[in-house]
């Protein structure tokens, strides 16, 4: 909904109020709002408040009510317990005047967006080795450009499958005849997705036996009807022939009564082990306590056989969803099986603080929301407990949140000293982290890429280079010399 135009008098009043309260309201916005809505006009996991578009009312009273009471369906908490009435009023004026002028009061548009849960502010990073100017030793080049929010990237030989959040699957094939070096084709016949908020076409992977069977796997936010309304993460597989999606099979779909009309925490990543299993993640979808309910599919890591059947050693075969492998997971957007150690690694978003690096094991409860190292976005206490009996601790955690997204094991030869280490993307810090692990133990980490954009996915290419999905392109990391 577009905001109504302010009268000259009301705008002058807003400007005068903002001038007096700018510093205070700027700090309040940075502390409580920027984590989801972004610092400037960019927005984050939630829409920008400074781009002249509001979906829940544009007048002062509506903005005040939304801040005070929250918007449950959008995942926005109320701030009545965290802010005084005067602070809320300062925030209302700050947001409204910033939207009218197109720039947050007292802000410069060049500032980058803050943490969305997709996000947060930097934590102290223990170094893996003594590495001097590691970023200066890397060459970062554009690889595939002109993309629209790539979410998942997966190599098939030298070709690349790319999911775009809006619901398109693209196949990029190398071509020596074109200046850009690529023929990028859109695959037709992909199912409709709910592209609202954090939903969309999510991860893509190919079967470990792809050369023989040609199966391609996709996860997406599946709407019950059309492209909006109640939805849930779904896993399918199909084949690609002449740029057409064919032979589709549904491998996992929740029962319709479990579908939720919220636009966030879909997960979702796909990975395979060497025993014929496929693992995939679903976020809690908003109702956080459902992550503890083993009769709900959300807030879980699932395991099935590649054909969709249930492994007979899954931990909860008598549950409504015998696919569940672990539970109590908030919003896992990193999941990878380590080919050398057989450890299943996962990264998930915490709330405000408490992003986690976990080793996922069969039947284990990872605690969300009963235990957490984070707090509510409005600054109030989420839980008194960081640990409870019967609930696993993260191997490591990031506070403040980094907005962990995308996870891989480096398996290439261009950086032989990095083999077996994890590559973890960060949306908030716009950084790529190289994490040293020892079996199922965390050793340390270092940033190897920074300030190139929000990192949604990362993978090792067939040439041993590291490939990173940014908002509009994929970049390639290789040694400088």
**Beta-strand proportion:** 25-35%
CATH architecture term of the largest domain: 6 Propeller
Remind me, CATH topology of the largest domain?
Neuraminidase
Number of helices: 5
Counting helices, strands and paired strands, the structural category is mainly beta
Give the overall silhouette. Answer: globular
How many individual domains? 2
**pLDDT < 50 stretches:** 1-21, 105-132
Share of residues in helices: 10-25%
State Rg: 22 Å
Straight-line distance between termini: 52 Å
Largest sheet: 4 strands, antiparallel
Per CATH, the class of the largest domain reads Mainly Beta
Query: What is the H level of CATH, i.e. the homologous superfamily of the largest domain?
Result: TolB, C-terminal domain
What key phrases describe this protein's structure?
481 residues; mainly beta; Cytochrome Bc1 Complex, Chain D, domain 2; Neuraminidase; 2 domains; 4-stranded antiparallel beta sheet; 5 helices; disordered N terminus
Topology, element by element:
Layout (H helix, E strand, L loop, with lengths): L7 H25 L1 H4 L22 H10 L15 H17 L36 E7 L5 E7 L2 E6 L3 E7 L7 E6 L13 E6 L3 H4 L2 E10 L2 E14 L2 E9 L17 E3 L4 E6 L17 E6 L18 E4 L4 E6 L6 E5 L6 E5 L36 E3 L5 E6 L12 E5 L4 E8 L2 E10 L6 E4 L5 E4 L4 E6 L2
Antiparallel strand pairs: 1-24, 2-3, 3-4, 4-5, 6-7, 7-8, 8-9, 10-11, 11-12, 12-13, 14-15, 15-16, 16-17, 18-19, 19-20, 20-21, 22-23, 23-24
Helix pairs in contact: 1-4, 3-4
């Amino acid at each position: 909904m577009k905001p109504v135009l302010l009268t000259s008098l009301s705008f002058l009043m807003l400007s005068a109020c903002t001038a007096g309260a700018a510093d205070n309201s700027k700090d309040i916005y940075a502390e409580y709002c920027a984590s989801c809505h972004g610092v400037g006009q960019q927005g984050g996991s939630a829409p920008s408040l400074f781009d002249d578009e509001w979906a829940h009312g544009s007048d002062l009273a509506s903005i005040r009510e939304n801040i005070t009471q929250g918007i449950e369906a959008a995942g926005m908490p109320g701030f009545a317990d965290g802010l005084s009435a005067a602070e809320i009023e300062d925030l209302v004026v700050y947001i409204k005047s910033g939207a009218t002028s197109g720039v947050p009061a007292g802000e410069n548009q060049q500032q980058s967006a803050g943490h969305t849960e997709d996000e947060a502010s930097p934590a102290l990073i223990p170094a893996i080795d003594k590495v001097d100017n590691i970023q200066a030793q890397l060459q970062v080049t554009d690889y595939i450009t002109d993309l629209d929010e790539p979410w998942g990237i997966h190599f098939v030989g030298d070709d690349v499958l790319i999911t775009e959040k809006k619901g398109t699957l693209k196949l990029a094939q190398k071509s020596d005849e074109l200046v850009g070096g690529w023929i990028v084709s859109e695959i037709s016949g992909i199912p409709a997705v709910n592209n609202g908020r954090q939903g969309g076409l999510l991860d893509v992977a190919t079967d470990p036996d792809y050369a023989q069977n040609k199966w391609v796997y996709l996860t997406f936010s599946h709407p019950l009807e059309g492209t909006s309304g109640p939805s849930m993460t779904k896993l399918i597989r199909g084949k690609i022939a002449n740029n057409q999606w064919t032979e589709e099979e549904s491998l996992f779909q929740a029962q319709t009564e479990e579908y939720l009309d919220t636009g966030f925490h879909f997960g979702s990543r796909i990975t395979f082990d060497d025993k014929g299993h496929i693992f995939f993640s679903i976020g809690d979808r908003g109702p956080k306590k459902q992550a503890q309910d083993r009769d709900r599919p959300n807030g879980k890591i699932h395991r099935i056989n590649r054909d969709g059947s249930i492994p007979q050693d899954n931990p909860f075969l008598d549950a409504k969803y015998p696919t569940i492998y672990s539970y109590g997971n908030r919003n896992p957007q990193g999941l990878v099986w380590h080919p050398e150690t057989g450890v299943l690694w996962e990264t998930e978003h915490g709330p405000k603080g408490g992003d986690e690096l976990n080793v996922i094991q069969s039947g284990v409860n990872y605690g969300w929301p009963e235990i957490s190292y984070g707090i509510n976005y409005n600054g109030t206490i989420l839980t008194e407990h960081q640990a409870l009996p019967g609930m696993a601790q993260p191997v490591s955690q990031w506070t403040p949140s980094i907005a962990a997204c995308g996870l891989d094991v480096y398996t290439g030869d261009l950086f032989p000293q990095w083999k077996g280490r994890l590559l973890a993307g960060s949306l908030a810090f716009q950084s790529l982290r190289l994490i040293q692990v020892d079996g199922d133990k965390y050793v340390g980490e270092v940033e190897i890429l920074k300030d190139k954009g929000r990192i949604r996915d990362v993978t090792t290419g067939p040439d041993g280079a590291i490939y990173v999905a940014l908002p509009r392109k994929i970049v390639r990391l290789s040694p400088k010399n």
